[in-house]
Amino acid sequence: MTDFLLPNSAWYSDFLVSPLFAISLTLICFQLSQVLYLRSQRFPLLHPTIVCAAVIALLIKQLDISYQQYFSDSYILTLLLGPTTVALAIPLYQNAKYIRQLFAPIAITLVFGASFAALSAVGLAYAMGASTETLLSLSTKSLTTPIAMTVTEIIGGNTALAAGGVMVTAVTGLCFGPLLLRWLHIDDDRIWGFCLGISAHGTATVLAFERSSKAGAFASLALCLTGSFSAIVIPIVVSLLK
């Protein structure tokens, strides 16, 4: 009976590579990270996205669980990102009148912002001698995770690398986005939200909602439009260059 409770027993090994462990680990780490974030007065470097990811990475490393295994076991959480993204339509509807008033500026900002987000990453990686697969994977780094992984798979990139690019973009947006906007003396919630959403997708959208519902709505709009625009344009551009 005591052997059953030992860490090297068969049930323990099976549990570590089960969806129950991966999902529980993710949810517990996120909740604890959220508590830490709130107690730190929302210090950007302690955002749950950053802390939770770091803690999970260390834990699965110590437990000798591969990232591929963890990702496969917790895939249901990734699937839920889709419905979550769709739910962002609610604040969009609530702020529809503001969005209609700014249709032209939004369209222009979308085209230039989404294009620069992809080209800057690809250009920098190309200058550093990155492979074609890496270039394709980084082109989707400013899209929300489910869209980024789907587009990356379509154009022949590496979905794991694309997910990493999305994460790095999210962390960078969380840490430096608000600081840059304050440095530029931008106080308009509409601009604040749209800039964050177009550059750092879902994670920045959550941050925008912490500022105001209007900022969150415009971040949601930017996230959705950037995803739609890039999902159409990136595969077309890649097919023309091949």
Please tell me about this protein's structure.
The chain is mainly alpha-helical and 242 residues long. Helices cover 80% and strands 0% of the residues. The protein is built from 14 helices and no strands. It has helices at 10-16, 19-39, 48-62, 67-73, 75-79, 81-87, 89-94, 96-101, 103-127, 132-138, 145-155, 159-183, 189-211, 213-241. The relative contact order is 0.11. Residues 1-6 have low confidence and may be disordered.
Structural class: mainly alpha
Kindly report the average pLDDT value: 82
* Count of helix runs: 14
Shape: globular
- Please indicate the percent range of residues in DSSP E strands (runs of 2 or more): under 5%
Number of strands: 0
**What is the CA–CA distance across the termini?**
62 Å
Q: What distinguishing features does this structure have?
A:
242 residues, mainly alpha, 14 helices, globular
Report a brief summary of the structure.
Helices cover 80% and strands 0% of the residues.
Provide the fold topology.
Layout: H1 10-16, H2 19-39, H3 48-62, H4 67-73, H5 75-79, H6 81-87, H7 89-94, H8 96-101, H9 103-127, H10 132-138, H11 145-155, H12 159-183, H13 189-211, H14 213-241
Helix pairs in contact: 2-3, 2-4, 9-10, 9-13, 9-14, 11-12, 11-14, 12-13, 13-14
